[in-house]
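Side project, low priority. Logging it here so it doesn't get lost.
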Amino acid sequence: MRRKQKIQTVDRARLVGDMLQAFYPSPEVPLNHTDAYTLLIAVLLSAQCTDKRVNMVTPALFARASRPEGMVQLEVAEIQQIIRPCGLSPQKAKAIHGLSVLLLERHRGEVPASLAELEALPGVGHKTASVVMCQAFGQPAFPVDTHIHRLAYRWGLSSGKNVRQTEQDLKGLFPEERWNRLHLQIIYYGREYCPARGHVVADCPICSRLGVD
């Protein structure tokens, strides 16, 4: 029984991977940025906020400061006022200022290409650090947000216990060289065809092929 389930899961992963590649062969990072630092800030702002709204807010923020040296010159209250539309602005403003200080103190103003060092920065969790590692530095990572977590469970690729388990399950199913691209492909597919609410199986190519709700 275990062997049969394993084969079924591998087959599901192959079908999902092939279809995502066909739909989104060259997915771009949805958050506007110019370097690792602006990507880090944008990803931090995207917590519980849409990418579209983040992209509306970051031009004003980066016009004031697009490097740690400039960001530390701003008061936390100034940052908060600019990023208010993204939600959770008090916490995010404090984190943006704090991580900018630490980048200058510990990393000469540069974003470290290390998962552990990124996670040591204020407001930077595992998912945010993983996004920066794969999208800014090209290092293999499989960032799992709530959307990817939801789809992996819906498609029968993970048990859905928690995002960490989902990350490990997906890493085990797909080759390392595809992780970075798959992260973006799943996000784009979920937005276009596989929403959390109002999901219509007949309109969802992957779910209809897999026979899931």
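Brief comment: The CA atoms of residues 2 and 8 lie 10 Å apart.
Revisit when time allows.
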